Backbone:
């Protein structure tokens, strides 16, 4: 899940800023068991860290 917000500053010299907020693995689902891997899940497809939040700000002139 991800949300973007674009803010135009009152002073045109500041340009615009894009704020991005999101969550990876929003439902914190259980990883499928994969017996052939050392981690017991396919690390090339899934990430075992669980739910992660992120925030990003991109400033453009």
Residues:
């Amino acid at each position: 899940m991800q949300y973007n917000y674009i803010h135009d500053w009152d002073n045109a010299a500041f340009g615009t800023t894009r704020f991005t907020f999101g969550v990876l693995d929003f439902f914190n689902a259980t990883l499928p068991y994969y017996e052939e891997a050392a981690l017991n899940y396919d690390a090339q497809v899934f990430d075992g860290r669980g739910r992660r939040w992120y925030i990003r700000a991109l400033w453009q002139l």
